[in-house]
Amino acid sequence: MSLRADGERANGAPARPESSADRTSPRPTHPAGPAGGGRAWLVWGVGVAVYFLAMFHRNGLGVAALEAQERFGVGPALLAVLPMLQLVVYVALQVPAGLLADRIGPRRSLLMGMAAMAFGVVLFAVAPNAPVAIAGRLFIGLGDALTFLNVIRLAALWFPRSRYALVSALTGVTGGLGQIASVAPLSAALERVGWTPAFLGAGALTVLMTLLVVLVVRDRPAGTPAATGHPRISVAASIMEALRTRGPRVGMAYHAVAMSPYTMLALLWGYPFLVEGMGLGPGTAALLLTVLGAGTLWMSPLLGALAGRWPGIRFPFAAVFAPVLTLGWLLLTLWPGGAPAGVVVAVLAVSATGAVVAPALSFDFARDGMPAHRTGVASGLVNMSGFSVTLIGTVLAGAILETAPEPRGMTDFQLAFLPMTAMMLAATCALLVLVLRRPR
């Protein structure tokens, strides 16, 4: 079956499961597809600036952790609930966010997300107690959930199919920069002007960015017909269509393997693992995580450009990278007495690479075999798969470490990371079956 560049069959009907010939053959281009160009980069640039701001809000609590404990009179255990609840909201809303993107378009979805984030930040800024602060973070999580999928939806609507992997990769890199950029300015603002003015300033910036979305962002290039001519299918049918299609399933499996382990470490357990498990000094541990996170950002655009130019490399790369990463985590968790420092650093470096390059391929896979006007649900499922594994692995690691006696050592962390390793192994097996098995 021949696929058009926008993921639809040539006759406009919904795509059926692809044949074996579709697996590695280059994607054909189609003259009717979006041309890209300067206007496309401007629209995507505003959208990705929204994503940058969302990542700033998502990670800002880490910078304000000590001030939050003092302001709300809570301990570390209750404070840890704030980012975890926000992540739960993010994961739970991925498929609804994808459905919303398909039904009302990325522009209106982004505006809804920006409104929720702005309200959440302001509420968090003036919160007199922990329950109100939690409500604020939940609204931030709601807005965050509506951001990423709609930015890559803009990429699908404004850029040629051959550019989608690159633009997805650049979107992921921008999010990583947003994580890094949240530290210095928010820390300085908290120190100089205090809690409420600092977060109200972030809320005002969010409102200004909302106005920019209103002025600049459009769902599709001028003259491009909307998808209103396509028959609308039910929510359940949209989800089942994505789950039956090979491309989104490959994207889900790859995202679960590549993105999850290092995200778990960056979210919570990397620093304690390096300090308590490896015996590194606090400064050395922080520097190592920063270098690994920032030093691998360049790999994602490179892989995205290569995948756009030669789409046939995507499946072999995924089929090699996922087992290598999983093997590294098996060594990390099963090495008697703990793996040598060199092996640990190598596994962390490969993990950081996986987290960085995950968007370049995961969301490109999600478009394979899907009608262009229904890719939001597929992207939502892919994003949910990776973050669900991250959330489960993070929570189970915490539960296991909670039972470990003080001081915790390498063996305790090896045991705590076994659930993540098991999920990676299962996802890798699923990925290899999908990539290597040819339909009868």
TrEMBL record:
Family annotation (Pfam families): MFS_1
Gene3D superfamilies per record: MFS general substrate transporter like domains
Key words, A-Z: Cell membrane, Membrane, Transmembrane, Transmembrane helix
Sequence segments annotated as region (Disordered): 1-35
CDD domains according to UniProt: MFS
GO cellular component: plasma membrane
InterPro entries found in the cross-reference section: MFS, MFS_dom, MFS_Efflux_Transporters, MFS_trans_sf
Membrane topology: Multi-pass membrane protein
Descriptive protein name: Sugar phosphate permease
Lineage: Bacteria, Bacillati, Actinomycetota, Actinomycetes, Streptosporangiales
